[in-house]
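Fold tokens
===========
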Amino acid sequence: MSAAARLTRAWYSSSGRMRCPVLLPVVVVFLGGCAHADAFEDGVLRKGELVVRFGPQPSVWRRVDVDGADLAFRDDAREGSALFDVRCGRRDDDAPLSVLTEHLMMGTTDREIESRLTIPFDGREAMHTLLHAKLDGVPMQYDIYVMKKDGCVYDIVYVAPPAHFAEGAPDFERFTRGLHALSSPKTIGSEPTAAPRSDP
């Protein structure tokens, strides 16, 4: 199973209580108060050789632990969730961005793609998808980025009920569009330069 298929079907009941969060299609649990496997401080994630900087984290987001994601946040006021996952050197991630994006939608129904664009993103290209879909019959709205860089695949997702999505999406966009890989397995050990190397 592709690692992309483990990221993200987080959803909540209309009362705002957590209801069976799952990651495609693996059932997982939010683990409040547990230690985080990867170091995330001052907007920078360190995962082995990989170092990734993000845009400003919204003050209304609180970090939670989700099995299968490197970073996960809960936006309680808007009943939304933001998740980030990066994996490197996996053969099944040679698939096109469109296929990797489809993996993230597995398990949803009644999909309506609002937009799907290939955009410049951290010196590469990313597929940016906005869509409406139902998860177990519940309408949800998604903002998805998928990028491949230096042998790694980056998945970034925001999901919220349609009634609150427009409120939370700008915070997610600022956080996501500020992403910059400061180092990766392919750049570790290379000659230092003024900025991280980017393939042409």
